[in-house]
Amino acid sequence: MSTSFDRNRAQLRCENFLNCPTLELWNEADFKSFILTVPQAFLLSSDLIEDSKNFYFKGVLSLFEAIKSIEAGLFSWGTIKLYYSIYYFLRSTLALNGVAIVRQKSLYYLKVASGEGPVKKSAKRYNSDHSGTINHFIDLFSASDELLSQVIDDTNAYDWLMQRREQVNYRERTFNEPNYSMFWEYIAVQIQNGNLERLVNDYVQDNYVLCFQEENAPLAIPLKRALLTKDKFDKQGISTDLTIDQKNVLTNLLPFKSIALAQLLT
């Protein structure tokens, strides 16, 4: 069955390199032995830049929807949206760094350079799109990513937030509204006291201290990841290409006008 939706350009490009019209017809042995040529690396690099922009919009939209949710006291779906923002920002950052995440039954990463080939890790944590993305990112960029410089309860920031999402989505019996999971307590009280905008500003300006404190981490980590991803675009001189309509959707989501968050839309 042919797909009727737009898939990631990097995935489609790799299928094209193997002369494969659909994912189901891929030969894993052919893919494992595949080596990028100079022209192929150039094409795939261009695809990744465009994919990075799509992932970025998904990340900002998820982040702003989450802020709107928690401002309204809806912390369960807020948690899930914040986690998804992290996932999309990591995908965007990987793409900007010339790393394609490609699925061929299992998950592979492919550094976009002549002579490089797909890499598959056998451990279970690399097999799903989400945990695979996070763990490949950690393996490749743990030495340079500020959010991996410390841990929260012996857990890196990305896994910590993924665990909170799994707690809310799968482990807890029901969503807790009108209450919230205990890890939200400090932020929830601040929101009830009308301090959400101040919190957001504090997290944006934080020098990577608050994001490793459990009481602040649920919101601080996604905000700092968003800023790191936007900074990667800026340093590489690449526009996020957000349209006027997309920017309007994003700004209308926020419960307050935030100068601190406006930089994500430039």
Task: Describe the overall structure.
This protein is mainly α. It has one domain (9-265). Helix content is 56%, strand content 5%. The chain is built from eleven helices and two strands, in the order ααααββααααααα. It has a two-stranded antiparallel ribbon. Strand 1 and strand 2 (106-111) form a beta hairpin. Helix 1 (9-17) runs antiparallel to helix 3 and helix 4 (75-96) runs parallel beside helix 9 (217-235). The protein is globular, with a radius of gyration of 19 Å. The termini are far apart. The model has no long low-confidence stretch (mean pLDDT 92).
From the structure above, extract its key features.
two-stranded antiparallel ribbon, mainly alpha
Overall shape: globular
Major beta sheet, strand line-up: 1-2
Overall structural domain count: 1
How many runs of DSSP E, i.e. beta strands?
2
In DSSP terms (H or I, runs of 4 or more residues), the helix count works out at 11
Helix content: 55-70%
Parts with pLDDT < 50 across at least 5 consecutive residues: none
Distance between the termini: 40 Å
On the 0-100 scale, what is the average pLDDT? 92
Helix/strand layout:
Elements: H1 9-17, H2 28-32, H3 38-71, H4 75-96, E1 99-104, E2 106-111, H5 129-141, H6 157-171, H7 185-192, H8 196-205, H9 217-235, H10 244-253, H11 259-262
Antiparallel strand pairs: 1-2
Helix pairs in contact: 1-3, 3-4, 3-9, 3-10, 4-5, 4-6, 4-9
